[in-house]
Amino acid sequence: MKRRRFFQHFGSILALLGASEAGWFTWESGYLPALAESSPRKLALLVGINQYSHGGTLGGCLTDVELQRELLIHRFGFIGSDILTLTDGAASRESLESAFVEHLSKQAQPGDVVFFHFSGYGSYVKSDTAADSLLKALIPADGIEIKAGQQEANYLLEETLFLMLRSLSTDKITAILDTSYNSLSQYLPAELITRSYQTPATAIFTNTELELRKQLPEKATQEALILQATAAPGQQAREIQLSGMNAGLFTYALTQYLWEITPATTIQFCLSQINSSIQQIGGNQESSWLSTKKNQQRALLTENLLPKTDIGAEAIITAVEDEGKTVQLSLAGIPPQVLESYGVNSRLRLVQPGDGELILRSRTGLTAKAQVTNSQTMPKIGNLAQETVRIIPRNINLTVALDSKLARIERVDATSAFANIERVSSVVIGEQTADYVFAKQPTSQDKELINNSASRYSLFSLSGERLPNTLGEAGEAVKVAVQRLAPKLQTFLGAKLWRLTENAASSQLQVKATLEVINGISPRGIMQRQTWRSRTWENGNKKLNNPDSTAIPEISIGSRVQYRVQNFGDRPLYVTLVGLNSARMAIALYPWQTEKTPENPQNPSQIQDVVIPPGQTITIPQTPSGFEWVIQSPTFWCETQLIFSTAPFTQTTTALSNYPHGEQQRIFPLLNPLEVAQAILQDLHNASTATVDTNNIPGDSYLWDVNHWASLGFMFQVVS
């Protein structure tokens, strides 16, 4: 389409709509409700750009497009022919404008659903009206052009996109922007890809954008929901390398959550869950949504506004082979911290008349092949599948990436040193999935080191955050640094293992846990997690105790906290707690109990299982006043995992009994985290194998049945 026709078309649309201002965004027209509500038509425009004409290269934008397309078709009922994708060179500025008009503006009618997704570079550009003002912009594939020796920025301003969206004829509009704008916020190894581009200072903003802006009035009437990968100006949208694929961290976490979600939740609760997942797998970004509507913070994702089916799933059938005996699956609903270790022989249940079981036979990234058994009907593309048995290999290691900025001799010495640590390996950064980064550059935000010319070795998260208590001294040898970090690496490996138990969506146990800050008489709940698939035990219209913010909750140093845990099932449940505090030290619940009798008044205390009777509620830890769990410094992230089982944690209590010794329930530092983590995984295995046929399960794997375990993860930030 010629640009003149594009401008004329937009002008006519906006003239018909008028310029009266409506509130920007409302959750009633939001992501889940808008996509799921029955409508005459559902239209989508998906844009993903890995290859740029100016030489910039990303790795996961095309994966994002595929993840969204799959979700829209199989979860939200979009028709494939109504989804238009623009990728790489096809996503030029002119093509993007033309596609928007032809596919969305001309076709969308009142009541239709419109979905727009962008994955690619973003950048700040200087405003043409205020020299000190910066505007957010999306960069098309031909975003940087060289004309007559001059660089031109052929960008699409974010505010222009918003006006384009709000000019459509429907108010059921959703946009996902997996991009960011600030490329200078902190240290980050170059191989860890972020979606921020620094526009050259000499670049000139093209007349294309300026002409389009003149055609668009400052006000438009329709409402839209915008979900963004970052919440703060300094944050960067990162890509994740996971199980042989690259994807946008935000897009992957978002689509994974939406595959599994079933309860009525607020948009804040949804994004809070997603942000916790992002942080747990190494991201330092918080997604956000835009709204100028008042009183929308508590809006619910009610059942009548859920996707075309209210059934969540971990997998979807994408191909049927061998006359229905074999299927190809997308495992898009598997939690990101679990996917890398999701093992062959894991089992899922088909959600369809006649049901049937799927047994995984192979997996590459998100794609798996499975054998179909006990199915009374032919499986079909689009059939959902829910996890029933999880298989996890026992020989899981921790992987540390070596920063490419290290000298060659440093990398050689580090590789040799890491090889001497049990169950820890090192890789070249960017070539394989890693858990942490070994480097010696301080972050730009580290005031302690800004003026210190001597770099020191440390461990960093995949988002470039230096981890507490991992920084060495100036002049430290590489091998000495690695040896110093060995105990910390064992702690991180233990945490990696217990994170694999996360199954809030697939568990059939009926539990709910609330993190509370104890202030005065009445504790204040700040975060809640519960099993989703078994929520028939609760009133579906009842509001959850959701956070009022999409941000990960903050708890001040010195606060007293506890968990309130409810068992809504008909059988007793056993529970244990492990985690990492803000100092990145392992912690655990030590349930010491003393049973003194007249015959034996000096009876020593012993570790005993914590049991929640059916229909009962307990607090963890159960301590008298003055002995509560108190949040300690430093300021950083804290995470805990509440793990439930239908059988006692026999091996776990034995591992905990070694140290320390106490008289009552307390949360203490965990001195043997790897041993305790392995004991927890084995106890869950023992609870499950009593009812599951293990003949075809290798002895070097754990087997967990969703009917016998639940695991709820909590993440919060410790602040001063």
SSE layout and pairings?
Layout: H1 3-17, H2 31-36, E1 42-48, H3 61-74, E2 83-87, H4 93-105, E3 113-119, E4 122-126, E5 134-138, E6 144-147, E7 150-153, E8 156-157, H5 158-166, E9 172-178, E10 204-205, H6 207-215, E11 225-228, E12 239-242, E13 245-248, H7 249-260, H8 267-280, E14 288-290, E15 315-321, E16 326-330, H9 336-339, E17 347-351, E18 357-364, E19 367-373, E20 384-393, E21 398-402, H10 408-419, E22 424-428, E23 436-439, E24 458-460, H11 478-499, E25 511-517, E26 524-530, E27 554-556, E28 560-567, E29 573-580, E30 586-593, E31 606-607, E32 610-612, E33 617-620, E34 629-630, E35 637-645, H12 650-656, E36 665-669, H13 673-689, E37 701-705, E38 709-719
Parallel strand pairs: 1-2, 1-3, 3-9, 7-10, 9-11, 21-22, 21-23, 27-38
Antiparallel strand pairs: 4-5, 5-8, 6-7, 11-14, 12-13, 15-16, 15-20, 16-19, 17-18, 17-20, 18-19, 20-37, 23-24, 25-26, 25-28, 28-33, 28-34, 29-30, 29-32, 29-35, 30-31, 30-36, 35-38
Helix pairs in contact: 1-4, 1-6, 3-7, 7-8, 10-11, 11-13, 12-13
